[in-house]
Structures are given as structure tokens and as C-alpha cells.
């Protein structure tokens, strides 16, 4: 069966403050171009969901569709725009995607039909309590055990039928989630956790761009 890479890239990048995030450049290449280049050698086709009115940056070899108002809606539209048996969903905002993670996901999906890259948490976790003053960042509330806690990344791999079904359920129930594996798990589907990579961090806040610039120098070698 065929495999498609589906890239939601229709966000407005509000937290980053640099315009639509997928079009932000790191060391001379857009986040979107980097994500597409990492995935295309491993799949039969690449589909990208773009903001209304946007076009693919020059040199990006993919098929573009118009995204939705939420990430979930963008992915739903991408799922309907392909007939591939397997799909790899990947955020344009995670431009540094090691090849080994892609291989591990494509293998895991043969087993369970759903798999995601994820990283075991390394930091101590705390739930913030009420702050001392209005507007401060809060005080130490309670410790949260990090045992068995993983931070979920992308790519996420699915048999397309499984994810289509999960999206249809979520839509009819008005449920929204920040990722796709969560929609499958919610229906009782098994989702394999595949070790991700620290370099797969999502470029979200302005400080992440400095990190991405530094990483790009090594990555582009
Ligand atoms: O905003 P956030 O960082 O969670 O976005 C994750 C990914 O989803 C980004 O690649 C963004 O472009 C994409 N997205 C989308 N459609 C939206 C919102 C976000 O494709 N309406």
C-alpha cells in the first residue's frame, strides 16, 4: 500500500509573532521546506495544508490544499485529500526530523495501526498553585510524578482508515484535541509510543527560533 505524508501548516503562528509559522525561515530555509525535505524520501506523496491565500514556498515539492480553522480540521481535510493506505502526520513547525524516527514509526504502524513519536520527560514536574499577586506566574503547587510520562511529538503514523474514523467521531461529538493519536486513543485504539528525539521540538515561542538557528548549523552541516 501507499504511504502519504500529511503536513498541517495552516497555523497563523500567533505565539511566534512572525506571520504564518510554516513560512518562517531558519538558516535560509522555511520550516515547511525542512519538514517536507525530511519526509519526501520515505513516502509516495506529500500533502500540505496551507493558510487561505498562501502558496507553497519555491522549491517545495508537495501538493497543497487549504487548511482549516484548527489543526484538527486541517488534518481532517488532508486525510480526505489522499487515498494512501498509511499516513504520516507531521507538524510543519517541527523542522528537524531524524530519519530513524520515521523508520521506527512505519514499522510500528504495521503492528498497531497507530503510533506516535514521544519523549520520556526528563524534568521534574510541578502543577502551579495560586500566585501571590495578580498576573504573576504562580507558585509551586504540587509535585507531579514523571514516572511513565511522555511528551507527545510528531510524526504520528496511522492506517488512514483508523484515523478517518477517529476524526469522524471527534467531529460528530464536537471534541477537539491537540494531536491525532489522542483521537485514536480516545476510541480505545492502541497507539504505540516510539522514542522521538529532542531535536523534534516544536518551534512555538520566539526563543525557539534561536535554538532552531543553532541546530540548523549542525543539521545542514
Ligand atoms: O499552533 P501549533 O503549534 O499547535 O500548530 C501545530 C501545527 O499545526 C503547525 O504546523 C501549524 O501550522 C498547524 N496548524 C494548521 N491549521 C491550523 C492551526 C495549526 O495546519 N488551523
From TrEMBL:
Catalytic activity of the protein: 2-C-methyl-D-erythritol 4-phosphate + CTP + H(+) = 4-CDP-2-C-methyl-D-erythritol + diphosphate
Protein name, per record: 2-C-methyl-D-erythritol 4-phosphate cytidylyltransferase
Transition state stabilizer (site feature) positions: 15, 21
Homology family: Belongs to the IspD/TarI cytidylyltransferase family. IspD subfamily.
Gene assigned in the entry: ispD
Site for Positions MEP for the nucleophilic attack, residues: 146, 202
EC number: 2.7.7.60
Organism: Deinococcus malanensis
Record-linked CDD domains: CDP-ME_synthetase
Function per UniProt: Catalyzes the formation of 4-diphosphocytidyl-2-C-methyl-D-erythritol from CTP and 2-C-methyl-D-erythritol 4-phosphate (MEP).
Pfam families, per database record: IspD
Any one Gene Ontology molecular-function term assigned to this protein's record: nucleotidyltransferase activity
Pathways involved: Isoprenoid biosynthesis; isopentenyl diphosphate biosynthesis via DXP pathway; isopentenyl diphosphate from 1-deoxy-D-xylulose 5-phosphate: step 2/6
Amino acid at each position: 500500500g501507499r504511504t502519504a505524508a500529511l503536513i498541517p501548516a495552516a497555523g497563523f503562528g500567533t505565539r511566534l509573532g512572525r506571520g504564518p509559522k510554516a513560512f518562517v525561515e531558519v538558516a535560509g530555509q522555511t520550516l515547511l521546506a525542512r519538514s517536507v525535505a525530511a519526509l519526501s524520501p520515505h513516502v509516495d506523496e506529500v500533502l500540505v495544508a496551507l493558510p487561505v491565500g498562501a502558496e507553497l514556498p519555491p522549491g517545495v515539492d508537495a501538493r497543497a490544499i487549504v487548511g482549516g480553522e484548527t489543526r484538527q480540521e486541517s488534518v481532517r481535510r488532508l486525510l480526505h485529500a489522499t487515498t494512501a493506505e498509511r499516513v504520516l502526520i507531521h507538524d510543519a513547525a517541527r523542522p528537524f526530523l531524524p530519519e530513524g524516527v520515521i523508520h521506527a514509526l512505519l514499522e510500528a504502524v504495521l503492528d498497531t495501526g497507530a503510533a506516535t513519536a514521544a519523549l520520556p520527560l526528563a524534568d521534574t514536574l510541578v502543577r502551579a498553585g495560586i500566585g501571590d499577586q495578580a498576573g504573576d506566574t504562580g507558585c509551586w503547587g504540587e509535585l507531579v510524578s514523571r514516572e511513565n510520562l511522555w511528551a507527545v511529538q510528531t510524526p504520528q503514523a496511522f492506517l488512514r482508515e483508523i484515523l478517518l474514523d477517529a476524526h469522524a467521531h471527534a467531529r460528530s461529538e464536537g471534541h477537539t484535541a491537540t494531536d491525532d493519536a489522542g483521537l485514536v486513543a480516545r476510541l480505545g485504539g492502541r497507539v504505540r509510543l516510539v522514542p522521538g528525539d529532542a531535536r523534534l521540538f516544536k518551534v512555538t515561542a520566539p526563543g525557539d527560533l534561536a535554538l532552531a538557528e543553532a541546530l540548523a548549523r549542525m543539521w545542514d552541516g
